């Protein structure tokens, strides 16, 4: 696999420009690609190599972000668990306030009462929020079965599929 530093200086600048523009391929950057002294296949190959390199960097960063997010979630849960513990202990002991050498912990009433719904099915419709969305699986199945579904249709789009090792094969 070609490394980013093995790609032409022009493509390296293009890759840096795209990253600097927060991933947007602007008209100016696209014009820079068009000005590169490359034939069609080499230009496409260079773009694919840059995409591979970007994906590799993305994967490394995502793994790091996932580890940090997991650590943050664990820390937040730990804090909330200890806070719940102190709350329960104050309620069990009947204490309204605890003063330590560094903290004052006070058990106090919420400023507003909480709404608790014990039987949702008995709520009048005026007190319900219902989120509607299209059942796309059912729509697809119906249209594929020959039915007409007003307000919906099927449409094929296109995408790019890249594979390594396909050199010399026409697609």
Question: TL;DR?
Answer:
This protein is mainly alpha-helical. Helices cover 49% and strands 4% of the residues. It is flat and about 80 Å long.
Q: Which SSEs are present, and which pair or pack?
A:
Layout: H1 9-20, H2 27-35, H3 40-93, E1 97-99, E2 104-106, H4 136-144
Antiparallel strand pairs: 1-2
Number of continuous helical runs: 4
Structural class: mainly alpha
Strand ordering within the main sheet: 1-2
What is the helical fraction, as a range of percent? 40-55%
Overall strand count: 2
Runs in which pLDDT lies below 50 for 5 or more consecutive residues are: 1-5
Strand-residue fraction? Answer: under 5%
Distance between the termini: 21 Å
Coarse morphology: flat
3D architecture notes:
By secondary structure, this protein is mainly alpha-helical. The protein has helices spanning 9-20, 27-35, 40-93, 136-144, and strands at 97-99, 104-106. It has a two-stranded antiparallel ribbon. It is flat. The protein starts with 8 loop residues before the first helix and ends in a 27-residue tail after the last helix.
